[in-house]
Amino acid sequence: MTTQTAAAPDLAWSPSAESPPPVPGASPPVHGSPGQARGTSGRSGPIPIRPLSLGEILDGAVSLLRLYPGPLLGLAALVMSVQLLLTVPVQYLSQDFSLSIFSPIPSSGGNDLNPLLALFGIALSATIGAVIAGLCAGVVSGMAAAVVGRSATGQPVTISAVWADVRPRIWALIGLSLVIGLATAIGSLFFLVGAWPVGAIFALAVPAMMLERVGPIQAIRRGWRLIFTNFWAFARLFLIRVLATVIVAGIWTFLVAGPFEVASQVILSLNAPQSPSPGQILLSVFASGLGAMVSGIVVIPFLGCVDALLYVDRRMRAEGYDIELGQRLRASARRVA
After folding, report:
1. Sign of the alpha-carbon dihedral angle for 93, 98, 104, 109
2. Structural domain harbouring 165
3. CA distance 149 to 210
4. Comparing C-alpha atoms, which of 207, 209, 193 is closest to residue 242?
5. pLDDT-derived band of residue 241, with 50, 70 and 90 as boundaries?
6. What element of type H or E holds 43?
7. 6 vs 320: CA distance, rounded Å
8. Predicted confidence (pLDDT) at residue 218 exceeds the cutoff of 90
9. How far apart (Å, rounded) are the C-alpha atoms in residues 310 and 306?
10. Contact 146, 165 (CB under 8 A)
11. Minimal CA–CA distance to 76: which of 292, 288, 296?
12. Is the pTM of this model over 0.85?
C-alpha cells in the first residue's frame, strides 16, 4: 500500500521499505530481542516493545491516562464540552416530544398525529445525538492515537504537540468518524449483539489514519488487513474490546454517570403527577448530559488508547514492528547522547 510521507518522520508509521518483511509462520519477536532499544528495558514508556497481552493493553491504556492527563483528559474535556453544548438542545426537544406522548389529545380539533410526531422527534433527536457523540468520540480517539504514537516512538507528548498532529487531519478524522458511525448504526440493526462486531471491524481505522498519514478509505482497508490476517486475530481483538468496554468503561460509566441520571429523573418527578415544566426538562437534560460528559472524559480516551494499542499489537504480530520500533528508539537514544 502506498502511503503519504509524514511531516514528522519519527511519527510516520507507514510500512517502511527498509523494514524486513514478516516471514510467514515465523514466531513474533520476544522480549529481549535485538530489535529492542538499548536502555529502555524493553519498553517505550508504558508500552512494551513486543506483542502485547490483554493485561498489558488494559494496563497500558490506564497508564497512558495517568502519564499524559493533559493531552488525553484535558483535550477530551474540551471536546466533550462541545458535545454537551450541542446535545443539550437536541435532548431537550427529545424530552419535550416524549412527554407529549402522554399528554391528553383533544377529542375535537386536536392533532391526532401528535404521538406519531413525538415518536418521530425522539428518533430524529436520538440520531442527531448519536452523530454528534460519534464525531466527538472519533476526534478524541484520534488524539489518543497521536499520544500512543508519540509515546511509542519516544517523542514529546504535550497538548500542543498532540494537537499539532491532529489538526491537519481533523476533517479526515471527522469523515472517518461519520463512516464508522453510520456502519455501527446499521450494524446495530442487524446484529443481535449490537454494534460491537462492527465496532471491532473498524477498530484500527482511526489509529491507522493518524499514525500512517493515509486517507479515511485507505485507513479502513489498512485496518482490515491487520485485523483479518486470520480468524483468531479478529476474535482476540473483538474480545479485548468487549472486555475493555464492559468491565472497565462500563463500570466507570455506571459509577460516574449513574448519580447524574438519578438526579435527572428526580428533577423530572418534582411536580408529579403534573407534567414537568420546561425549566425542569432543561435542567434534567443538562444533568444527564453532564454525567455523560464527566464519564466520557475518561472512558473515550481510554477506549481510544485501547484501540491504538491494539493497532500497535497487530503491527508487531503481523509485521514485526517491534524490531523497527526498537531500531527507531535506539537511533533516537544515539542522537540524544
Report:
1. positive
2. 39-100+113-336
3. 9
4. 193
5. very high
6. strand 43-44
7. 21
8. yes
9. 6
10. yes
11. 296
12. no
User: Structurally, how many domains does the chain consist of?
Assistant: 1
Q: Examine residue 214 and state whether it is found in any structural domain, yes or no.
A: yes
Look up residue 145 and give its three cell numbers.
492515537
Q: How many CB atoms lie within 10 A of CB 294?
A: 18
Q: Would you say 133 and 85 are in contact if contact means Cβ atoms under 8 Å apart?
A: no
Establish if 31 belongs to a structural domain. no
- Contact (Cβ atoms closer than 8 angstroms) between residue 22 and residue 287: no
Closest CA to 311 of 1, 109, 60: 60
Helices marked H in the chain — which ranges? 54-67, 69, 75-100, 114-152, 159-166, 170-190, 196-201, 205-212, 216-227, 231-243, 250-268, 278-319, 321-336
Q: Is residue 150 part of a domain?
A: yes
Would residue 10 count as lying in a domain? no
Grid cell listed for 120? 418521530
Single-letter code of the amino acid located at 337: A
Query: If residue 47 lies in a helix (H) or strand (E), which one and from where to where?
Result: strand 47-48
Whether the CB-CB separation of 87 and 137 falls below 8 Å is answered with no
Alpha carbon distance 134, 131 (integer Å): 5
Q: Of the ranges 53-57, 94-98, 158-162, which one carries the lowest mean pLDDT score? A: 94-98
CB 256 within 8 A of CB 300: no
Cis peptide leading into residue 273 (ω within 30°):
yes
Radius of gyration of the chain (CA): 23
